[in-house]
Every structure is written in structure tokens, then in C-alpha cells.
Amino acid sequence: MVVLETERLVMRPLTGDDFDDYARMLADPEVADGLAESVGTSRADAWRSLATFIGHREIRGYSHWALVEKATGRFAGRAGPWRPYGFPGLGVGWCLARDHWGKGYATEAARAALDYCFGTLGATEVISLILPGNARSVSVAERIGHSHLRDTEYRGQQVHVYGQRR
Ligand SMILES: CC(C)(COP(=O)(O)OP(=O)(O)OC[C@H]1O[C@@H](n2cnc3c(N)ncnc32)[C@H](O)[C@@H]1OP(=O)(O)O)[C@@H](O)C(=O)NCCC(=O)NCCS
């Protein structure tokens, strides 16, 4: 999987070495509660989640990247293409550690991920599943050019489907 670079982020493959940062990110209920891929907040939950993202790369050849803040080298979150079994299309997703909210990193990474989906993966439609009430995620979706397409059920929850075609 390639490494991408944006103005302020390096987007590189997630590895097992990201576990402590990843677990700290998901330990915050404000972060975990936003995720349509609902996970818990424990370190065991985080390990399974990280393993799923790394395993997805093995199976699909692409997955979320770790987002590394260029200025500091710190782990800021994850974002990227996503299509696990049962997902209703090619997705692009984003998740930031709480102390990296409000800097524009999710939008910056999501734009790069979206270009990768259309340009490299050859997608014609890219979607994002967003839980009702996740206004910050809706804002990211709208900033990258998504619009609300429909609602659906995903893993037992009602979710909004945002997306765009190119
Ligand atoms: C969803 C989530 C990634 C959004 O994070 P975010 O920080 O609001 O989104 P961005 O990184 O795009 O940042 C946008 C904000 O940064 C601000 N910003 C500051 N500096 C900026 C810059 N240089 N460039 C762009 N925006 C900047 C913007 O004005 C905007 O602020 P606002 O929220 O007050 O309007 C974050 O809330 C999160 O990780 N939530 C938990 C997980 C989750 O819900 N994931 C989505 C599942 S669908």
C-alpha cells in the first residue's frame, strides 16, 4: 500500500506499532461513539479494530492509512478506503484522536483518500456511512463534496449514506 502525503500529513499504512496511540484514540467515548463500525473503548476492542484495518489491507489491498502529523511526527488518526464484507459500496472513512479535532486534518486526509479511490482504485462512486447526529462527520463529508444519498441499516444500526460519483 502506497504512502500518501498531504500538506500537513503523511498517510502511511497502519502497523501493530500504532497500537498504543490507536487504543488511546478509541478510549475516548467521544471518538468511539461516532463510528458506524461500532467498537468499544477498551484496549482489547482497539486491538481488534486495528487488526481489522490491517487485515482489510491484506485482503483488499487497501485500507485506512495512519495519519501522521508532519510537524510533530505524532499519530493523529486514521482515514482511507474501506469495504469490509457487507459494506454497501466502496467507502471512505475518517477518525481522529480527540486532540487533533478542529485542525482540518480529517478533511485533508479524506480528500486525498477520495482521489485515491477514484484515481487508483477506479471507483465510480464512493460512499461514507454516518451515524445520525454525527454533525462533525457530516461537515467533513460535505466539505469533500459528498451529499446525502439515502439511509440504510448497517450492522443493526440506522445510518446515513453520504457519497459522490465521478
Ligand atoms: C469526524 C471527525 C473526524 C471530524 O473532525 P474535525 O476536526 O471536526 O474535522 P476536520 O479535521 O475536517 O476539521 C474541521 C475543523 O477544523 C477547522 N480548521 C482549523 N484549521 C484548519 C485548517 N488549516 N484547514 C481546514 N480546517 C481547519 C475548521 O474550521 C473546522 O472547524 P469547525 O468544526 O469549528 O467548523 C472527528 O470528530 C472524529 O474523529 N470523530 C470521531 C470518529 C468519527 O465520528 N468518525 C467518523 C465516522 S463516520
Give the structure's gist in a few sentences:
This protein has 166 residues and is an alpha+beta fold. The chain has five helices and eight strands, in the order ββαααβββαβαββ. Strands 1-2-3-4-5 form a five-stranded antiparallel sheet, sandwiched between helices. Strands 6-8-7 form a three-stranded antiparallel sheet.
Overview of the structural elements:
This protein is α+β, with helices and mostly antiparallel strands and 166 residues long. The chain has helices spanning 19-26, 29-32, 43-60, 105-119, 135-143, and strands at residues 4-5, 9-13, 65-69, 75-82, 91-96, 125-130, 147-154, 157-165. Helix 1 packs across helix 3 (43-60). The protein is globular. The mean pLDDT is 97. Coenzyme A is lined by residues 31, 34-36, 93-96, 101-107, 128, 130, 134, 136-137, 140.
- What is the count of distinct domains? 1
Beta strand %:
25-35%
Total helical segments = 5
- Catalogue the unreliable spans: none
CATH topology: Aminopeptidase
Report the average pLDDT across residues. Answer: 97
Question: Total number of β-strand segments?
Answer: 8
Kindly report the spatial arrangement of strands forming the biggest sheet: 1-2-3-4-5
Global geometry: globular
CATH architecture: 3-Layer(aba) Sandwich
Helix content: 25-40%
Oligomer: single chain
Protein name: RimJ/RimL family protein N-acetyltransferase
InterPro entries: Acyl_CoA_acyltransferase (IPR016181), GNAT_dom (IPR000182), N-acetyltransferase (IPR051531)
Organism: Nonomuraea angiospora
Domain N-acetyltransferase: 9-166
